[in-house]
Amino acid sequence: MFNYAFTTKKFVEWATNLYSDVIRNNNNEKFTYDDTTNQLKVQSNNQCVGAWYNNGFTVHIVPCDANDSSQKWKIDLDNHRLRHLSSNNACLGTIPAEVGYPVYVTTCQESSMNQWINLCSNVQTHNYVLIQSRVFMKPLSEYDTGLYADDQKYNLNEIFDYDVNNKMFKAMSNGQIFGLFS
Q1: Phi, psi at residue 9, to the nearest 5°?
Q2: Is residue 92 a contact partner of residue 74, using CB atoms and an 8 Å limit?
Q3: Which residues contact 90 (CB under 8 A, 6 or more apart)?
Q4: Which CATH number is 9-122 given?
Q5: Which pTM was predicted?
Q6: Residue boundaries of the structural domains of the chain
């Protein structure tokens, strides 16, 4: 099984397309990877993920064909990327904060959370939160060890992990804990 899990969202197949969605525990969000053919198969319809280039990549779910290079993928667990094998440096991505956002192919970038994937068995439970200012309703964002209220950017700087046991917030962008000092 395969999912991308930074914000506890998964890739989901719907009407032969891929989107990001919350976990619903159905077969549209379950995939198997065949490391012999390098194909990613959706459990709901036994079809495969393919990407074609035509002035940019288009991602679709299509009948599996082991000879079709557009259906060849490599799960790169060391870098948490799903790489397209027919292109030198192309990875699947989406906007993790957006439910229903289409999955796309883009240039692989080491620091991009839009491309981060993991196996279901490796996913840990976290309490990810977005903190907003009360007056201006702007998200709190960590930058260069400071905290700022700014327009939403949909990036890692706006995501915090709440540690229930220790009652602390940790910035996911740099792993630092909120602290007050004078």
Answers
A1: -115, 160
A2: no
A3: 51, 57, 83, 84, 105, 106, 107, 108
A4: 2.80.10.50
A5: 0.64
A6: 9-122, 128-171
Q: Is pLDDT above 60 for 25?
A: yes
Q: How far is CA 89 from CA 84, 125, 126, in A?
A: 8, 31, 30
Mean pLDDT of 139-158: 84
The pLDDT of residue 164 is above 60: yes
Residue 38 CA to residue 60 CA, distance in Å, equals 16
In SS3 terms, 78-143 reads as: CCCEEEECCCCCEEEECCCCCCCCECEEEECCCCCHHHCCECHHHCCCCCEECCECCCCCCEEEEE
CA angle centred on 172, ends 166 and 176, rounded to 5°: 60
**Separation CA 51–CA 13 (nearest Å):** 14
